Amino acid sequence: MTPARCMQPRRAQSATGDRMPLNIEPNIASPDEFYEALLAAHRDLTPDESQRLNARLVLLLANHVGDLAVLRDALDRARGSVRNRMA
Amino acid sequence: MAVDYQQLVLPYVPPARCGDVPGTRRPVIVVGAGPVGLTLAIDIARYGTTVLLLDDDDRLSSGSRAICFAKRTLEIWDRLGCGDGIADKGVSWKVGKVHVGERLVYSFDLLPEAGHRRPAFVNLQQYYVEGLLYDHARMQPNLEMRFKHKVVAVDASAAGARVTVETPDGRYDVLCDYVVACDGSRSPVRDMLGLASRGQTFRDRFLIADIRMEADLPIERRFWFDPPFHPHGSALMHRQPDNVWRIDFQLGWDADPAAEREPERVKQRLRRMLGEDTQFDLIWCSVYTFSCVRMEHFRHGRVIFAGDAAHGVSPFGARGANSGVQDADNLAWKLHYVVRGEAPDGLLDTYASEREQAADENIAHSSRSADFLTPKSEISRVFRDAVLCLAEAHPFARRLVNSGRLSTATTLVDSPLATPDRDSFTGAMVPGAAAADAPVTVDGKRDWFLRHVGGRFVALRFADRATPRTARVRDDSAPPPGQAFDTLPRIDPLLVAAPSSDSAHDKGALIDIDGMLAARYDAQPGTTYLLRPDQHVCARWRHYDAGALHAAAARAICNG
Predict the structure, then answer these.
(1) Is residue B413 part of a domain?
(2) DSSP characters over B153-190
(3) Using CB atoms within 10 A as the burial measure, which of B162, B383, B410, B492 is most buried?
(4) Using the beta-carbon criterion (under 8 Å), do B400 and A51 form an inter-chain contact?
(5) Structural domain of residue B187, as residue ranges?
(6) Residue B468 included in any domain
(7) In total, how many domains does chain B have?
(8) B377 touching chain A per CB within 8 A
């Protein structure tokens, strides 16, 4: 089941042969541990505090990635999965 | 005795005493005697084209207004012969400091290298700049200025332009080839033509105050986000000459402009910032909002727009007056070549395309700063605050803090007048870039490179063994086939020699005494640059090639 709020970004679907700079293959050695840590970081926070944490997390990780093309790709995919844009 | 430029009343001459001969057609009329109009009129006059400058007022800028004048602007005024007065009177600075709350989180140096004649910025009240430009304008034989001569109508067609001028003693008409409107953000000429400047207005208000105060503070641009003396807002402090300080407070959109201008209220804010015991006099204040706007086209046939009339930005990058002066720098030589019949009218279209692109760059920087200072949405504020919070302990976040990205010379990328590189180069002096300065010596005396270029096309040649003793450009080769000399601008040769080279004793050669010129231009022996009259790079080659030089020069005046 696809959750109602999750849309498949159109660009990703139609991107056959179009190489995306963002690595979307598994890259985290212990995915369950990461997921647990992510939730743990948010534990006991109000939604407002969680939003502030997420903003800091995005900035820290974006700097680590560095490559603007990769970041733009990630932004497009993230936005596309929230709001499916017209082609 | 120094002139009090704020009290200076500029001379009004009634139309009957102006000596106009009916039916005379002037090449250029400039409307508006602010920093941009004065710069443009002086520049055109110095090229040798007569120019009439009209202004509706007889006073200089009221209040300090624009105060930060950038290195490139000073270099342009140097070319016009009035840079010293302005730079000497101004307060030089190059370091900016950004505080969050009480902590200093970020410091930037706008000119971290030596070997430049001019500093990154000088701060100087706009009325001084206008006064010093006016004093210089009065000495230009080709420039006539008329104050309290207000342009009320512009009737332009393919055949020419008729400008109707209103004075206290009645109206008169003047004919001309080109009208340049430098008449400010509310440009009456723009309205007369039914044109508009469009973009976005930011929903925020700022209080700007000038105070006189004895204070022994470092000469820096100091910026605060959320300081204890002004919670939830930003504040900016700048030093000006005469012990005058500029302070800017972000008030928010809901502030009442009339109440905020009340001197007692302003002083209360200032006391919170400066301390209850600090003595100061409030000498000027204003509440403003800002927009990032531009006209779609800067040229409309015979009417051309420059400065705030053509584009507007927030004050936080000092990109208003500085970009306007660069407009003037770009336009003056083109008007001169066109009215003299030495270049086609299409050259003026490149003023529009080059400076429209520059305006887009300035607007992009200014809008980004505004989005940081005045977040437009809740999430925008969350990210802004996250950046500020991370900045103290995380170096990367300091680079994201945006309290204004300050004006630098615009590189005219994609200029139709530039010849793309054929040879391999590195560094900043790409075709379209404004020429960088460097120390040189001439006949054994210390000098600056930029004093020797500009005002004409220059072929800058870094000496090699093949360079003739007198590095002539025009005479040592035939023009390319099918290319007549009269379609080419005059090009003056300029030889640069390393201190140890054989050419170092050639008369007129610039000696690259510290090697900085070669380093900044990525030059090797034989490297040749073609520079425009406004000192922007047209083209460059690894070896001198007369044919390529002529082709690039022809292209640079739209004859290519």
Answers:
(1) no
(2) EEEEETTEEEEEEEETTEEEEEEEEEEEE---TT-HHH
(3) B410
(4) no
(5) 15-92+111-197+293-366
(6) yes
(7) 3
(8) no
